[in-house]
Design a protein that fits this description.
Layout (H helix, E strand, L loop, with lengths): L2 H15 L4 E8 L7 E8 L7 H17 L9 E4 L5 E7 L3 E7 L6 H40 L3 E6 L5 E4 L3 H5 L3 H4 L11 H14 L1 E10 L5 E11 L8 E8 L1 H23 L3 E5 L6 E4 L1 H7 L3 H4 L4 H5 L16 E8 L5 E13 L2 E10 L1 H44 L5 H33 L7 E3 L1 H18 L3 E6 L6 E3 L1 H17 L6 E9 L2 E8 L32 H11 L3 E7 L3 E9 L2 H5 L1
Parallel strand pairs: 17-19
Antiparallel strand pairs: 1-2, 1-5, 3-4, 4-5, 6-7, 6-10, 8-9, 9-10, 11-12, 11-15, 13-14, 14-15, 16-18, 19-20, 20-22, 21-22
Helix pairs in contact: 1-3, 11-12, 12-15, 13-14, 14-15
Length: about 625
């Protein structure tokens, strides 16, 4: 029976037996931050304590009881006579509250009061029992609701037998089993391997407690479920076996998500690290670097590991700028800039900066490439265009000069029938020499064209070089004598045969010797040597002319390259030595240059002797 119903029955009995017309049962109430007082449990008539006729006397009685004895045990009755002729008698319900009785027949005598007090003790005990029962029921209901509604699984397991003594209904979501199906069953059902169960039980026994212990269980459908188990050992009830009590949470989705996240991160890092383009990823607000790939680290000059935590603006923005010219939250930005490495080297790069979302987070990704090669290629292209333009200009000049001589002297001969024989022979020789010069120029241009087209072909046969070189020297000596240059030779006779093209050898030697004459001042010296050395034939042309600057020596064999001499304007097209190198290569030979500016130059050609020709 609940407190209110029992109070109604008890009060009705009191009023009937004692011939009372009104009354009430009140419970002492004390709440934190509120004054102590009496809470009505049941009154007859209803709202008895609020009736204007009784209100003042009841307030007096309540206050009197609170001041005299807050335990309400052994207090004397408080009697008040109201103006309406009703006597209110307030008596103690020890340990619970007070009982108020009102009647019009006058005061109770001592005998009746003593009897009532004895009854009140029983009533107070009964009321307290009801209060305790109601509190227990409320508490049990509260915790039962919590027990049945929590998502985590609560369990009690017998340490000795391993049987489940209690488990919350939420186990169904984890295992597929209902609570009733699991009560009394051994926890081994959840383990695919018996050792896993033993390890769990032994760990709890030894440690006394486990926190966030991750273990894989098997559900009703034999599927793996990963759970986090937190539990401790407690004493059993009534001296029974100790209990394992704790909670279990299904973390399968979380673990799988974390695993998938790690795999995605690994996949992303693998992709980024394999890209040959430099990549740096940073926080969009702070610009702190969170990831950098090896290509970017190598280009920047800082290891990828050390780059983490640095400010992206300090390493990837324009040299000495100190800031990035982009609203990086909104737009993609591409720019060419200069990257300053820690070692002081400046690297030209093209950088693309773009906001990206990676694994649900916003970042700034900067990709960049070293454009040094592109810049060099552009410069080389510009240089090549300038060189070809100069070549066309030089060829035009070189063509006009002999043509002008040929036209001029031939025209003079045709116009003057009475010209002296000596003069005619002189003019005719000039026309012949200029024609030879023109022929060599045209042949060089054609050779360059054939080289570019890959169509250079020679008629190879066993030849002896000494008569060929001697012939070229004699032909070039005419030009040497005009500049009073001493053209000396050291040519060995009966040299071994080599497989070669006679025309190619002539052009090779002609270009080398004519170059030496061109760049040697008047009264200079040129020495041409031809000799055998081991299994090679060596041709060297040495002069004491202008010499070649060291920085130009690697470029002189390039097509159209001419050494810039600010104080001189030398004729030529810049293709002679390129042709020589190609001809030497066609004969499986090598050519090297040694030169000292102001002292002279020596070109050395090495041609291999064919073994079959050597035996012949």
């Amino acid at each position: 029976m609940d407190l209110k119903r029992m109070s109604k029955t008890a009060l009705s009995t009191y009023l009937k037996k004692l011939n009372c017309s009104a009354g009430g049962i009140y419970q002492f109430s004390f709440k934190e931050n509120a004054p102590a007082g009496f809470q009505p449990i049941y009154t007859i008539p209803r709202n008895f304590d609020r009736h204007p006729a009784y209100r003042q006397d009841l307030d007096y009685s309540f206050a009197k009881f609170l001041n005299d004895d807050t335990n309400f045990s052994g207090s004397a009755p408080i009697i008040c006579d109201t103006e309406q002729g009703i006597t209110l008698t307030t008596l103690s319900l020890p340990g619970f509250g007070i009982l108020v009785l009102g009647r019009s027949g006058g005061h109770f005598d001592d005998y009746i009061l003593n009897s009532i007090q004895q009854m009140n003790i029983k009533l107070a005990n009964a009321c307290n029992t009801c209060v305790q029962n109601e509190s227990r029921i409320k508490s049990e209901t509260k915790y039962r609701n919590i027990f049945e509604s929590i998502q985590d699984v609560y369990a009690e397991i017998d340490v000795v037998s391993g049987k489940i003594l209690e488990i919350s209904p939420s186990i169904f979501e984890v295992s597929g089993f209902t609570r009733d199906e699991l009560l009394g069953r051994d926890i081994s059902r959840f383990f695919e391997n018996v050792p896993d169960r033993s390890v769990l039980m032994d760990t709890i026994k030894v440690e006394g407690r486990i926190d966030d212990y991750q273990i894989t269980l098997i559900n009703k459908n034999n599927e793996d479920r990963i759970v986090s188990f937190t539990a401790s050992i407690k004493e059993g009830k009534l001296g029974g076996s100790p209990l394992i009590t704790g909670t279990m949470r299904d973390i399968t989705k979380r673990i799988r998500s974390e695993r998938e996240l790690r795999e995605n991160e690994h996949r992303l890092k693998t992709i980024i690290n394999s890209i040959p383009v430099g990549i740096v990823i940073s926080n969009p607000d702070t610009r702190i670097v969170t990831l950098a790939n090896p290509a970017g680290a190598e280009m920047i000059g800082v290891s990828a590991k050390k780059m983490i935590g640095l400010n992206g603006c300090d390493i990837l923005c324009e040299l000495n700028s100190g800031s990035c010219k982009i609203d990086h939250h909104k737009e993609r930005h591409v720019t060419n800039l200069m990257l300053k490495r820690p070692d002081g080297i400046n690297v030209p790069i093209m950088k693309t900066m773009v906001p990206v979302h990676i694994l649900g987070q916003e970042y700034i990704m900067e990709s960049f490439v070293d454009i040094s090669v592109h810049i060099e290629a552009e410069e080389a292209l510009k240089t090549n265009i300038r060189t070809k333009d100069n070549f066309v200009s030089n060829v035009s000049h070189e063509l006009r000069t002999p043509l002008a001589s040929i036209l001029g002297f031939s025209g003079t001969i045709l116009k003057d029938d009475q010209m002296a024989d000596e003069t005619r022979r002189k003019f005719t020789r000039i026309i012949f020499e200029e024609s030879q010069r023109l022929t060599r120029l045209i042949e060089n241009v054609l050779n360059i064209a054939r080289m570019d087209a890959g169509k250079t072909q020679f008629e190879m046969q066993p030849v002896q070089l000494d008569p060929i070189i001697q012939e070229v020297v004699e032909a070039q000596n005419v030009m040497a004598l005009k500049k009073q240059i001493e053209l000396k030779t050291q040519i060995e006779n009966d040299l071994p045969l080599i497989t070669a093209s006679t025309d190619a050898i002539k052009q090779m030697a002609t270009n080398l010797i004519s170059n030496a004459i061109k760049f040697t001042d008047n009264a200079g010296k040129i020495e041409v040597r031809l000799f055998a050395e081991k299994e090679n034939i060596i041709l060297s042309v040495r002069d004491n002319g202008l010499g070649i600057p060291e920085e130009a020596q690697e470029k002189i064999f390039e097509k159209f390259y001419r050494v810039e001499r600010p104080q001189r304007e030398d004729p030529g097209t810049g293709i002679g030595l390129a042709i020589v190198k190609d001809l030497v290569s066609q004969h499986n030979g090598q050519i090297v240059v040694q030169s000292t500016p102001g002292k002279g130059t020596m070109f050395t050609v090495t041609l291999p002797v064919d073994a079959a020709n050597e035996e012949a």
